[in-house]
Amino acid sequence: MRRTLLSLLIALSVSGAALAQEDVSKVNGTASVEDGQHAGDVHTVNGSVRIGERAVVQKASTVNGSVDIGEGATATSVKTVNGAVTLNEKARVSGDLENVNGRVRLESGAEVKGHLSNVNGQISLERAHVGGGIETTNADVTIGEDSKVEGGLLVKKPSWGWFNSGSDRVPKIVIGPHAVVQGTLTFERDVELYVSDSATVGKIEGATAKKFSGSTP
């Protein structure tokens, strides 16, 4: 009897874990995971992805739509083509964050352990951390106060194509007060580069930094 009960408990535990890790997939509409829940990959084609507070998921991705990772939530990776990405306070991406056209915002305490990249839009960090470097082509980048980026910053030379439709505009790059950028800051195109007099940055290639004091240039 005891062995039967133990086997039943193990089976229920395994079954519950499997259900907790099920994928959430849609073609049209929002794909969401509620606060505190666990899921596998969360994906939609035409719609947004919403990950609730303290939820844990694998890949969060969409083609046409935004991705919102709730406060204290965790994803292994984030990817979208057309849409904004927001990591709310203390949200964490353990791998890469990839975006083509759209704003990327990391709020206070948020972290991307891997590489963060986009082509067009804006990238902003507010007391946040990126562990694998930042890469863009046309985006304005603000590495805000007390933020830290490891792996450097790369602003690539535009190539012809519809993904680079805004390539004539000069990106504005701001490294805010007490921010740290470890690694090389490489600029393959013209940019406006502003670096706080209290920031710490690595070697700068391809641009001349304009120093500023105060919270913004």
Concise overview:
The chain has 1 helix and 26 strands.
What structural class is derived from the secondary structure elements? mainly beta
Strand content: 35-45%
User: How many H/I helices?
Assistant: 1
Number of strands: 26
- Total tally of structural domains: 2
3D shape: globular
User: Assembly type of the shown chains?
Assistant: single chain
Q: What is the succession of H and E elements? A: HEEEEEEEEEEEEEEEEEEEEEEEEEE
* Mean model confidence by pLDDT: 91
Overview of the structural elements:
Helices cover 9% and strands 41% of the residues. With 217 residues, the protein is mostly beta strands. It has one helix at residues 2-20; strands spanning 24-25, 31-33, 42-46, 49-51, 56-64, 67-69, 74-82, 85-87, 92-93, 97-101, 104-106, 111-112, 116-117, 122-125, 129-130, 134-136, 140-143, 148-149, 153-155, 172-175, 180-181, 185-187, 192-196, 200-201, 204-205, 210-212. The strands form two sheets. The protein has a 16-stranded parallel sheet that branches. Mean pLDDT is 91; it is low at 5-19. The protein has two domains: 32-98, no CATH class; 115-217, no CATH class. The chain has one helix and 26 strands.
